[in-house]
Amino acid sequence: MARILITGINGFVGMHLARCLTGMRHTVFGYDRRAAEDEKNIFVGDLADHELFKNVLKECRPDFVFHLAGVIKSAQPEVFYNANLLGTVSLFDGLMRTELRPVVFLASSSAVYGSGFGGKPINERVKPHPITHYAVSKLAQEIASLRYFDAFGLPVMVVRMFNLLGPGQSPDLACSAFARQIALAEACSENEITIGDLRARRDFVDVRDAVRAFALLAEKGKAGHIYNVCSGHAVLMRKCLDEMLSMSPTQFKVRVDAGKIQGNDVPIQVGDASKLNRITGWRPHIKLKQSLSDLLADWRQRVKLGME
Q: Which of 147, 138, 14 is nearest to 69 (CA)?
Protein backbone atom coordinates (compact mmCIF):
# COMPACT_ATOMS: atom_id res chain seq x y z
CA MET A 1 0.00 0.00 0.00
CA ALA A 2 1.16 3.52 -0.81
CA ARG A 3 1.86 6.55 1.37
CA ILE A 4 -0.11 9.51 0.01
CA LEU A 5 -0.10 13.24 0.79
CA ILE A 6 -3.11 15.38 -0.20
CA THR A 7 -2.82 19.16 -0.15
CA GLY A 8 -6.17 20.84 0.42
CA ILE A 9 -7.44 17.67 2.05
CA ASN A 10 -10.27 19.48 3.85
CA GLY A 11 -11.70 20.84 0.61
CA PHE A 12 -14.51 19.42 -1.52
CA VAL A 13 -12.37 17.12 -3.68
CA GLY A 14 -9.82 16.47 -0.95
CA MET A 15 -12.25 14.94 1.53
CA HIS A 16 -13.70 12.62 -1.12
CA LEU A 17 -10.26 11.61 -2.37
CA ALA A 18 -9.06 10.90 1.16
CA ARG A 19 -12.11 8.69 1.77
CA CYS A 20 -11.55 6.84 -1.52
CA LEU A 21 -7.83 6.20 -0.93
CA THR A 22 -8.30 5.24 2.73
CA GLY A 23 -10.91 2.73 1.60
CA MET A 24 -8.23 1.23 -0.67
CA ARG A 25 -6.05 0.82 2.45
CA HIS A 26 -3.49 3.45 1.50
CA THR A 27 -1.91 5.54 4.25
CA VAL A 28 -3.22 9.07 3.72
CA PHE A 29 -1.73 12.29 5.07
CA GLY A 30 -3.14 15.76 4.60
CA TYR A 31 -1.84 19.31 4.43
CA ASP A 32 -4.31 22.17 4.67
CA ARG A 33 -4.51 25.79 5.75
CA ARG A 34 -7.46 25.05 8.00
CA ALA A 35 -8.05 22.47 10.68
CA ALA A 36 -10.79 19.85 10.57
CA GLU A 37 -12.54 17.82 13.26
CA ASP A 38 -10.40 14.74 12.64
CA GLU A 39 -6.78 15.83 12.91
CA LYS A 40 -5.27 12.37 12.44
CA ASN A 41 -2.43 12.53 9.91
CA ILE A 42 -3.38 16.09 8.93
CA PHE A 43 -0.87 18.94 9.16
CA VAL A 44 -2.08 22.54 9.27
CA GLY A 45 -0.03 25.14 7.45
CA ASP A 46 0.60 27.15 4.31
CA LEU A 47 2.65 25.91 1.37
CA ALA A 48 4.56 29.19 1.59
CA ASP A 49 5.93 28.01 4.96
CA HIS A 50 8.89 26.24 3.36
CA GLU A 51 10.44 24.86 6.53
CA LEU A 52 7.17 23.41 7.85
CA PHE A 53 6.30 21.84 4.51
CA LYS A 54 9.77 20.32 4.15
CA ASN A 55 9.41 18.74 7.60
CA VAL A 56 5.94 17.43 6.70
CA LEU A 57 7.36 15.81 3.56
CA LYS A 58 10.15 14.17 5.53
CA GLU A 59 7.65 12.81 8.05
CA CYS A 60 5.12 11.58 5.47
CA ARG A 61 7.65 10.37 2.88
CA PRO A 62 4.85 10.09 0.28
CA ASP A 63 4.86 7.87 -2.78
CA PHE A 64 2.18 10.11 -4.31
CA VAL A 65 1.20 13.74 -3.80
CA PHE A 66 -2.24 14.93 -4.89
CA HIS A 67 -2.06 18.71 -5.12
CA LEU A 68 -5.62 19.97 -4.65
CA ALA A 69 -4.95 23.14 -2.65
CA GLY A 70 -5.99 26.33 -4.40
CA VAL A 71 -8.63 29.01 -4.89
CA ILE A 72 -11.67 28.85 -7.21
CA LYS A 73 -13.47 32.12 -6.42
CA SER A 74 -12.11 35.56 -5.51
CA ALA A 75 -12.83 39.19 -6.34
CA GLN A 76 -9.08 39.88 -6.20
CA PRO A 77 -7.10 38.58 -9.23
CA GLU A 78 -3.84 38.35 -7.29
CA VAL A 79 -5.39 35.79 -4.94
CA PHE A 80 -5.61 33.27 -7.80
CA TYR A 81 -1.95 33.68 -8.73
CA ASN A 82 -0.69 33.63 -5.15
CA ALA A 83 -2.63 30.50 -4.22
CA ASN A 84 -2.73 28.52 -7.46
CA LEU A 85 0.57 29.39 -9.11
CA LEU A 86 2.92 30.41 -6.31
CA GLY A 87 1.50 27.76 -3.98
CA THR A 88 2.31 25.13 -6.60
CA VAL A 89 5.85 26.45 -7.07
CA SER A 90 6.29 26.28 -3.29
CA LEU A 91 5.16 22.65 -3.31
CA PHE A 92 7.62 21.61 -6.00
CA ASP A 93 10.48 23.63 -4.55
CA GLY A 94 9.77 21.93 -1.24
CA LEU A 95 10.08 18.54 -2.90
CA MET A 96 13.30 19.56 -4.60
CA ARG A 97 14.79 20.39 -1.19
CA THR A 98 14.40 16.74 -0.19
CA GLU A 99 15.55 13.49 -1.73
CA LEU A 100 11.92 12.47 -2.24
CA ARG A 101 10.58 12.01 -5.76
CA PRO A 102 6.89 11.08 -5.41
CA VAL A 103 4.48 11.10 -8.33
CA VAL A 104 2.66 14.44 -8.20
CA PHE A 105 -0.90 14.87 -9.48
CA LEU A 106 -1.94 18.43 -10.19
CA ALA A 107 -5.69 19.05 -9.99
CA SER A 108 -6.36 21.45 -12.85
CA SER A 109 -9.57 22.60 -14.50
CA SER A 110 -11.37 22.57 -17.83
CA ALA A 111 -11.49 26.35 -17.40
CA VAL A 112 -8.07 26.44 -19.09
CA TYR A 113 -9.77 25.57 -22.40
CA GLY A 114 -11.89 28.72 -22.27
CA SER A 115 -14.19 28.84 -25.29
CA GLY A 116 -16.60 25.97 -25.80
CA PHE A 117 -15.39 25.38 -29.38
CA GLY A 118 -18.96 25.25 -30.66
CA GLY A 119 -19.90 22.37 -28.41
CA LYS A 120 -17.39 19.95 -29.93
CA PRO A 121 -15.85 17.53 -27.40
CA ILE A 122 -12.56 18.96 -26.13
CA ASN A 123 -9.60 16.59 -25.82
CA GLU A 124 -6.20 17.24 -24.31
CA ARG A 125 -4.70 18.23 -27.68
CA VAL A 126 -6.92 21.33 -27.91
CA LYS A 127 -4.90 24.50 -27.35
CA PRO A 128 -5.90 26.19 -24.08
CA HIS A 129 -7.46 29.64 -24.29
CA PRO A 130 -8.30 30.79 -20.74
CA ILE A 131 -10.59 33.81 -20.41
CA THR A 132 -10.67 34.43 -16.63
CA HIS A 133 -7.97 35.10 -14.04
CA TYR A 134 -8.84 31.79 -12.40
CA ALA A 135 -8.34 29.93 -15.68
CA VAL A 136 -5.07 31.75 -16.45
CA SER A 137 -3.77 30.89 -12.98
CA LYS A 138 -4.64 27.20 -13.52
CA LEU A 139 -2.85 27.10 -16.87
CA ALA A 140 0.18 28.81 -15.33
CA GLN A 141 0.02 26.20 -12.56
CA GLU A 142 0.13 23.43 -15.16
CA ILE A 143 3.08 24.97 -17.00
CA ALA A 144 5.00 25.43 -13.76
CA SER A 145 4.31 21.82 -12.72
CA LEU A 146 5.36 20.30 -16.03
CA ARG A 147 8.56 22.36 -15.89
CA TYR A 148 9.68 20.18 -13.00
CA PHE A 149 9.04 17.11 -15.14
CA ASP A 150 10.90 18.50 -18.14
CA ALA A 151 13.80 20.07 -16.25
CA PHE A 152 14.27 17.67 -13.33
CA GLY A 153 12.47 14.48 -14.26
CA LEU A 154 10.05 14.80 -11.34
CA PRO A 155 7.05 12.60 -12.24
CA VAL A 156 4.05 14.88 -12.74
CA MET A 157 0.56 14.33 -14.15
CA VAL A 158 -2.05 17.01 -14.80
CA VAL A 159 -5.72 16.17 -14.30
CA ARG A 160 -8.15 18.62 -15.91
CA MET A 161 -11.48 18.20 -14.16
CA PHE A 162 -14.64 19.43 -15.80
CA ASN A 163 -17.61 20.58 -13.69
CA LEU A 164 -17.88 18.53 -10.51
CA LEU A 165 -20.98 17.76 -8.47
CA GLY A 166 -21.64 16.01 -5.20
CA PRO A 167 -22.09 16.34 -1.44
CA GLY A 168 -19.84 18.81 0.33
CA GLN A 169 -19.56 21.23 -2.58
CA SER A 170 -19.08 24.96 -1.96
CA PRO A 171 -22.04 27.27 -2.67
CA ASP A 172 -19.66 29.34 -4.80
CA LEU A 173 -20.57 26.99 -7.65
CA ALA A 174 -23.93 27.16 -9.39
CA CYS A 175 -25.58 23.80 -8.68
CA SER A 176 -24.50 23.87 -5.05
CA ALA A 177 -25.85 27.43 -4.76
CA PHE A 178 -29.20 26.18 -6.13
CA ALA A 179 -29.27 23.32 -3.62
CA ARG A 180 -28.39 25.62 -0.73
CA GLN A 181 -31.18 28.05 -1.63
CA ILE A 182 -33.72 25.25 -1.92
CA ALA A 183 -32.71 23.76 1.44
CA LEU A 184 -32.80 27.15 3.18
CA ALA A 185 -36.16 28.05 1.63
CA GLU A 186 -37.64 24.72 2.73
CA ALA A 187 -36.43 25.30 6.29
CA CYS A 188 -37.82 28.86 6.39
CA SER A 189 -41.04 28.16 4.49
CA GLU A 190 -40.04 30.56 1.72
CA ASN A 191 -40.69 29.97 -1.96
CA GLU A 192 -38.35 32.21 -3.95
CA ILE A 193 -34.85 31.50 -5.20
CA THR A 194 -32.63 33.72 -7.32
CA ILE A 195 -30.60 32.58 -10.30
CA GLY A 196 -28.23 33.83 -12.98
CA ASP A 197 -28.12 32.78 -16.62
CA LEU A 198 -29.34 29.19 -17.03
CA ARG A 199 -28.63 28.90 -20.76
CA ALA A 200 -25.06 27.62 -20.35
CA ARG A 201 -24.34 23.94 -20.97
CA ARG A 202 -21.76 22.14 -18.88
CA ASP A 203 -20.11 18.73 -18.69
CA PHE A 204 -20.77 17.39 -15.19
CA VAL A 205 -19.08 14.51 -13.41
CA ASP A 206 -19.69 13.36 -9.85
CA VAL A 207 -16.80 14.12 -7.49
CA ARG A 208 -16.81 10.49 -6.35
CA ASP A 209 -16.23 9.37 -9.93
CA ALA A 210 -13.53 12.03 -10.31
CA VAL A 211 -11.51 10.83 -7.32
CA ARG A 212 -11.78 7.29 -8.62
CA ALA A 213 -10.08 8.58 -11.78
CA PHE A 214 -7.25 9.94 -9.63
CA ALA A 215 -6.83 6.54 -7.97
CA LEU A 216 -6.73 4.74 -11.32
CA LEU A 217 -4.18 7.20 -12.70
CA ALA A 218 -1.97 6.48 -9.70
CA GLU A 219 -1.84 2.88 -10.93
CA LYS A 220 -1.78 3.34 -14.70
CA GLY A 221 -1.13 6.98 -15.63
CA LYS A 222 2.00 8.23 -17.40
CA ALA A 223 4.17 11.06 -16.08
CA GLY A 224 4.28 14.19 -18.19
CA HIS A 225 0.75 13.65 -19.50
CA ILE A 226 -2.52 15.59 -19.15
CA TYR A 227 -5.85 13.82 -18.60
CA ASN A 228 -9.42 15.11 -18.88
CA VAL A 229 -11.98 13.90 -16.34
CA CYS A 230 -15.45 14.45 -17.79
CA SER A 231 -18.68 12.74 -18.82
CA GLY A 232 -18.62 13.63 -22.51
CA HIS A 233 -22.12 15.17 -22.33
CA ALA A 234 -23.20 18.81 -22.04
CA VAL A 235 -26.17 19.52 -19.75
CA LEU A 236 -28.26 22.69 -19.68
CA MET A 237 -27.97 24.51 -16.34
CA ARG A 238 -31.74 24.96 -16.43
CA LYS A 239 -32.11 21.18 -16.39
CA CYS A 240 -30.00 20.92 -13.23
CA LEU A 241 -32.15 23.48 -11.46
CA ASP A 242 -35.41 21.92 -12.64
CA GLU A 243 -34.23 18.49 -11.51
CA MET A 244 -33.58 19.72 -7.97
CA LEU A 245 -36.80 21.74 -7.85
CA SER A 246 -38.68 18.54 -8.72
CA MET A 247 -37.11 16.91 -5.64
CA SER A 248 -38.71 19.45 -3.31
CA PRO A 249 -42.31 19.49 -2.03
CA THR A 250 -42.17 23.31 -2.17
CA GLN A 251 -43.40 25.19 -5.22
CA PHE A 252 -40.78 27.82 -5.95
CA LYS A 253 -40.78 31.15 -7.72
CA VAL A 254 -37.55 31.56 -9.68
CA ARG A 255 -36.25 35.11 -10.06
CA VAL A 256 -33.35 36.16 -12.28
CA ASP A 257 -30.75 38.28 -10.48
CA ALA A 258 -28.72 40.34 -12.97
CA GLY A 259 -25.88 40.47 -10.44
CA LYS A 260 -25.40 36.71 -10.78
CA ILE A 261 -24.94 36.78 -14.55
CA GLN A 262 -21.30 36.48 -15.59
CA GLY A 263 -20.29 38.55 -18.59
CA ASN A 264 -17.46 36.26 -19.67
CA ASP A 265 -19.28 32.96 -19.19
CA VAL A 266 -18.62 30.18 -21.71
CA PRO A 267 -21.97 29.19 -23.34
CA ILE A 268 -21.14 25.50 -23.81
CA GLN A 269 -18.30 23.20 -22.87
CA VAL A 270 -18.10 19.42 -23.20
CA GLY A 271 -15.05 17.24 -22.68
CA ASP A 272 -13.54 14.14 -24.23
CA ALA A 273 -12.16 11.61 -21.73
CA SER A 274 -11.08 9.06 -24.36
CA LYS A 275 -7.45 9.23 -23.24
CA LEU A 276 -8.33 8.52 -19.61
CA ASN A 277 -10.73 5.76 -20.71
CA ARG A 278 -8.07 4.13 -22.87
CA ILE A 279 -5.31 4.24 -20.24
CA THR A 280 -7.30 3.26 -17.15
CA GLY A 281 -10.69 1.92 -18.27
CA TRP A 282 -12.38 4.67 -16.23
CA ARG A 283 -16.01 5.52 -16.93
CA PRO A 284 -18.33 7.70 -14.84
CA HIS A 285 -20.79 5.56 -12.88
CA ILE A 286 -22.95 8.06 -10.99
CA LYS A 287 -25.82 9.62 -12.94
CA LEU A 288 -26.52 13.35 -12.90
CA LYS A 289 -29.83 12.90 -11.07
CA GLN A 290 -28.13 10.98 -8.26
CA SER A 291 -25.39 13.61 -7.95
CA LEU A 292 -27.97 16.39 -7.68
CA SER A 293 -30.08 14.41 -5.22
CA ASP A 294 -27.06 13.75 -2.98
CA LEU A 295 -26.01 17.40 -3.20
CA LEU A 296 -29.48 18.59 -2.15
CA ALA A 297 -29.65 16.03 0.68
CA ASP A 298 -26.26 17.24 1.90
CA TRP A 299 -27.43 20.85 1.96
CA ARG A 300 -30.59 19.91 3.82
CA GLN A 301 -28.40 18.28 6.46
CA ARG A 302 -26.08 21.29 6.61
CA VAL A 303 -29.04 23.65 7.05
CA LYS A 304 -30.47 21.40 9.76
CA LEU A 305 -27.16 21.54 11.63
CA GLY A 306 -26.78 25.31 11.11
CA MET A 307 -23.74 24.84 8.85
CA GLU A 308 -25.12 26.74 5.87
A: 14
